[in-house]
């Protein structure tokens, strides 16, 4: 199996200022480029990128992505074809990046991703989440980006909640890997040791930096960026999202499908992590991820995200039906009575 990796990576403060002298500019010269952004602040950031890349109006078309619905993907692809696009640039958050990856994959074009927030591992992954309707979403296999450009000054200005969401996604590597090892042991599911190592080390690199005294916030931001990129590479090496997506992601997807998806992806995954690590036996161990939540601004209770106990119970029960993926949930008593007891242990009722 041939594994594709990004050819170019720029991840540092004032990254846009480095673009004019980069090999990326040489590749884009005289080629037709379609830039996909959101219709808010990311639109202006997209203009900064195109200026830094020395793109001429004659070779440039700008498209705006309002959501990650399948019909939006179809529309943007059609517009990109009309503009005879030869390269796709996605500038924005997770939804814009996912749409850009799908359009680039469909058209078999190189994709440059320019994240404006670290809200998930979508910044460099072979998977895109696209909504079919307001309830159902699909995980679509896509080509890895050709280049990733992260201006740390830009992502530092994004809302803190988006950063916390991205870290929730990153921490889930731990519970996902435990699930994958379980599936390997019980179901003889094939594992990739290199993918496991990359996914595990990407999370450890961030946590090791987080626990250092007097750590500079920009250094932490850079490590978080690199760790999320490595998570995407782990998935590419594995040929599956297994290294970074287990029972905790199934719970999040079930919340989307059955309970209206009331919070950010990484926030819901973070709640899933607390449930998964309890079922895996890690809640009270030194390896518990709960110990980092308060410092990272992650939710310690589902009520913080607007969910009821009944909704969380339903999501846990429905999670194994989301996809054919063996996890700790397959070895758990999923009766309402048992789940409620588990939830009371993880999320003690207020006195």
Automatic annotation (TrEMBL):
Co-factor binding comment: Binds 1 zinc ion per subunit.
Keywords from the named record: Cytoplasm, Lipid biosynthesis, Lipid metabolism, Metal-binding, NAD, NADP, Oxidoreductase, Phospholipid biosynthesis, Phospholipid metabolism, Zinc
Pfam families hit by this protein: Fe-ADH_2
Example GO BP: phospholipid biosynthetic process
Residues noted as binding glycerol in the record, renumbered to the chain: 121, 169, 249, 265
Positions contributing to NAD(+) binding: 94-98, 116-119, 125
Molecular function (Gene Ontology), one example: oxidoreductase activity, acting on CH-OH group of donors
Cofactor(s), by name: Zn(2+)
Protein name: Iron-containing alcohol dehydrogenase
Gene source species: Peribacillus saganii
Phylogenetic placement of the source organism: Bacteria, Bacillati, Bacillota, Bacilli, Bacillales
């Amino acid at each position: 199996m041939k594994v594709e990796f990004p050819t170019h990576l720029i991840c540092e403060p004032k990254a846009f200022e480095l673009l004019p002298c980069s090999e990326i500019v040489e590749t884009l010269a005289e080629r037709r480029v379609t830039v996909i952004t959101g219709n808010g602040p990311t639109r202006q950031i997209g203009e900064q990128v195109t200026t830094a890349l020395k793109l001429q109006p004659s070779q440039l078309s700008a498209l705006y992505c309002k959501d990650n619905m399948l019909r939006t993907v179809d529309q943007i692809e059609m517009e990109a074809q009309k503009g005879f696009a030869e390269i796709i640039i996605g500038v924005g958050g997770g939804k814009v990046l996912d749409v850009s990856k799908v359009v680039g994959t469909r058209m078999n074009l190189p994709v440059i991703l320019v994240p404006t927030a670290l809200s998930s591992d979508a910044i460099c992954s072979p998977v895109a989440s696209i909504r079919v309707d307001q309830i159902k979403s699909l995980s679509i296999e896509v080509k890895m980006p050709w280049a990733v450009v992260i201006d740390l000054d830009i992502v530092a200005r994004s809302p803190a909640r988006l950063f916390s969401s991205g870290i929730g996604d990153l921490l889930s590597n731990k519970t996902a890997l435990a699930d994958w090892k379980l599936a390997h042991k019980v179901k003889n599911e094939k594992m990739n040791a290199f993918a496991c190592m990359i996914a595990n080390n990407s999370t450890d690199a961030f946590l090791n930096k987080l626990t250092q005294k007097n750590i500079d916030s920009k250094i932490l931001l850079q490590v978080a960026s690199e760790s999320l990129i490595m998570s995407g590479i782990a998935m590419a090496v594995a040929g599956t999202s297994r290294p970074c997506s287990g029972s905790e992601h199934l719970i999040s997807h079930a919340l989307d499908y059955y309970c209206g998806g009331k919070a950010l992806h990484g926030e819901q995954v973070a709640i899933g992590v607390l449930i998964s690590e309890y079922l895996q036996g890690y809640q009270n161990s030194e390896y518990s991820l709960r110990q980092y939540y308060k410092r990272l601004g992650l939710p310690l209770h589902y009520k913080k995200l607007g969910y009821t106990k009944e909704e969380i119970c339903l999501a846990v029960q429905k999670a194994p039906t989301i996809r054919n993926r063996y996890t700790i949930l397959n070895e758990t008593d999923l009766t309402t009575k048992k789940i409620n007891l588990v939830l009371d242990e993880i999320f003690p009722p207020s006195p």
